[in-house]
Amino acid sequence: MKDMNEGYLTADGRQIGGVVMELKDITLRFGGLTAIEKISFDIRDGEIRAIIGPNGAGKSSMLNVISGFYVPSDGEVWFKGVRRGPMKPYEIARLGIARTFQNIALFDGMSVLDNIMTGRLTHMKKGLIAQAGWWFTGAAREEYENREKVERIIDFLEIQNIRKTPVGRLPYGLKKRVELARALAAEPKILLLDEPMAGMNVEEKEDMCRFVLDLNDEFGTTIVLIEHDMGVVMDLSDRVVVMDYGKKIGDGAPDEVRNNQAVVDAYLGVAHD
Ligand SMILES: Nc1ncnc2c1ncn2[C@@H]1O[C@H](COP(=O)(O)OP(=O)(O)OP(=O)(O)O)[C@@H](O)[C@H]1O
Known about the structure:
By secondary structure, the chain is of the alpha/beta class. It contains eleven helices and 13 strands. It is about 35% helix and about 25% strand. The strands form three sheets. Strands 9-10-11-6-12-13 form a six-stranded mixed β-sheet, sandwiched between helices. A hairpin with a 5-residue loop joins strand 2 and strand 3. It starts with a strand and ends in a 5-residue tail after the last helix. Adenosine-5'-triphosphate binds near residues 33, 55, 56, 60 and 61. Adenosine-5'-triphosphate (ATP) binds near residues 35 and 57. Keywords: ATP-binding, Nucleotide-binding, Transport. Pfam families: ABC_tran (PF00005), BCA_ABC_TP_C (PF12399).
């Protein structure tokens, strides 16, 4: 299926590119607890990469390492060929990494549009002084451009009819969609989705799957997602990393992983040595 140096062609004919991020021997400890132990894998341009594993396997911790929120205790993170050190949140966003959270993190009292606009903050170059001299400084043009980008995302995610609605009034599935819109507003190179389908009904899941596939296709966004619904993982992802007790026990195409005995055992709860 693949020549890993040159990228690879997926089963559905999409061309996946070279390595965007490489995680080398990542270990993450919280005091005496080792949440991640010597895990290595890469993320390739344009692919949909899933991280799966039983509860407490270390998936969210790994997503936090990828996002730069956690600095690993050991190991190296390479992003676009450069070794990454500790970073501030705004530096992470500027690198082109955005995420959604397991528990929705939106401003309930603000409209859908305003929530999505917050996703553009890292792209707003003009500061307060520029805002004061709005017309003279180019801030007006910048705001116009930001609005245009946000409108495109609103159209793409089919949420035009709720643009002015306060987020707090929306049903769960739509809130998740607004969170996705906000992450997309940052125009990320890598989009991290922490259980994007959790708590959704079947119809909402189908919608979310379609949006994830479409945004990968239309914007070329590389996606890393944690998901418990195996049907969703197998349908969506190009490659899957499987974690159990902080270790990597599988890595490959969905079919390879499904037939991996260690993975089957982990999900069936077979005892470890
Ligand atoms: N900030 C933290 N401080 C201390 N321990 C933590 C912290 N975050 C996670 N852990 C521990 O690290 C281990 C891995 O947790 P993590 O949340 O990464 O797993 P997970 O696979 O995402 O689980 P789930 O599917 O339940 O969300 C767990 O034992 C957890 O209790």
